[in-house]
Specification:
2 copies of one chain form a homodimer. Chain A is mainly alpha-helical. Chain A folds into 2 domains: about 5-85, Winged helix-like DNA-binding domain superfamily/Winged helix DNA-binding domain (Arc Repressor Mutant, subunit A, Orthogonal Bundle), CATH 1.10.10; about 100-170. Chain A is about 55% helix and about 10% strand. Chain A is built from 8 helices and 3 strands; from the N terminus they run H-H-H-E-E-H-E-H-H-H-H. Chain A has helices at about 5-15, 20-30, 40-50, 75-85, 100-105, 110-135, 140-165, 165-170; strands at about 55-60, 70-75, 95. Chains A and B meet through helix 1, helix 4, strand 3, helix 5 and helix 6 of A and helix 1, strand 3, helix 5, helix 6 and helix 7 of B. Strand 3 of chain A pairs antiparallel with strand 3 of chain B, so a sheet runs across the interface. The first copy, chain A, binds a DNA duplex through helix 3.
Chain lengths: ~190, ~190
DNA sequence: GCTTCCATGTAATAGGTTACATGATTTG
DNA sequence: CAAATCATGTAACCTATTACATGGAAGC
């Protein structure tokens, strides 16, 4: 089984009823933001399908000063389906990083580009960290807190690694360079903790 | 630009010539294993396309005792294309974790399942760590070492977090209701396989 | 006045996985 | 003797992204 948008929506609706628009926002800014993401183009069809299958119901709400809203709620069958799904074994994570791919070819880039890439990366991680911190409220379930903490730990580790090891790819390689002191290239061993 | 299998293959071939079969193995077991993965169904068509575009060339090699092999090498145009691609801004990481999704609903699972999930996760991370350690050879480029070290740091942080915080989801939550009867509603379950 | 937020949806497209099809050889 | 490894490829399928289409209200 793969974690698809349909299951993501069902899970989110088991926490609270919401519209498609709100779901997208929750994925993007909620406590699970670091590993969930979905576009409207996948959310709306998913909700239609869940409704057809009887796992959620929809009630249209007219609002003043705002567009109409379709609020979806989970049904008992939906809750059941979610709990059944939760008994299976989770599939492996899907992680694909263009940043790391680029970095693995740092010798093919000039120093400026490499540094820029790392700076950008640090900034995006800081941004994501801020999002997680904002969504850390008291009303989160233990599970959500656990997951949020996990994301936070990963980002902290990421920042630390980038800061501590950027010199490995920023030190100009094979240059007929003049005397540059401080050639502190530490052997990039895997197990360097401190 | 998105990191597609075609670009992954081109990058790998810029390091060394290889067959499609070898590329898959390299993705799965090499120093970039933690964020690259591709099936044969995507690699072989990608190689065909790269050849058509003149970015790689192919030479068939007959082997004794083994099936014939198609060894692909990068062309100057291919090397050029790779370096051009490297000047762009990398797209955001794609990360989707079914494990974390499950954990965020830990209250809906029984304690045994939660513990099993965490144990399994620890074991898979340990397995991936072993793969990375095995691929840590001296002939890696600085970029590859940097990326491999990054993966290693992430896994270490992951293990530490799991071990230090599993109690957050393993402590039994105050459940009001004792016996939940299992009503056998044949609900249209989510992706029931097996 | 421009941009962002609210709000829903469809269609074209891209990109990938899984299963299928084939088959010799080596390892346990 | 069964399983894994080596080796390539296609076809059916699935899922998700992007762009398109629409439009009022609120904030800057």
């Amino acid at each position: 089984m793969t974690l698809d948008v349909r299951t993501m929506c069902l899970g989110a609706l088991s926490e609270a009823e919401a519209s498609g628009y709100e779901l997208q926002k929750n994925f993007k800014e909620g406590p699970l933001a670091h590993f969930l993401e979905a576009s409207y183009g996948s959310i709306y069809p998913a909700l239609t399908r869940l409704t057809e299958e009887g796992l959620v119901t929809c009630s249209e709400q007219t609002q003043e000063g705002r567009p109409d809203k379709k609020v979806y709620s989970i049904t008992p069958q939906g809750q059941d389906a979610l709990e059944v799904a939760l008994r299976a074994l989770p599939a492996e994570d899907r992680f694909r990083s263009e940043f790391l791919f680029f970095m693995s070819f740092s010798e093919l880039m000039d120093a400026g580009q490499v540094s820029r890439l790392i700076d950008d990366r640090i900034n995006t991680v800081l941004g994501k960290q801020a999002i997680l911190e904002e969504s850390n409220r008291e009303d989160l379930t233990p599970g959500q807190k656990f997951v949020l903490g996990y994301g936070h730990a990963m980002m902290k580790a990421s920042l630390k690694y980038l800061q501590d090891n950027r010199h490995l790819v920023e030190v100009p390689q094979m240059r007929p360079a003049p005397a540059q002191k401080n050639n502190g290239i530490t052997s990039p061993s895997l197990n360097q903790d401190q």
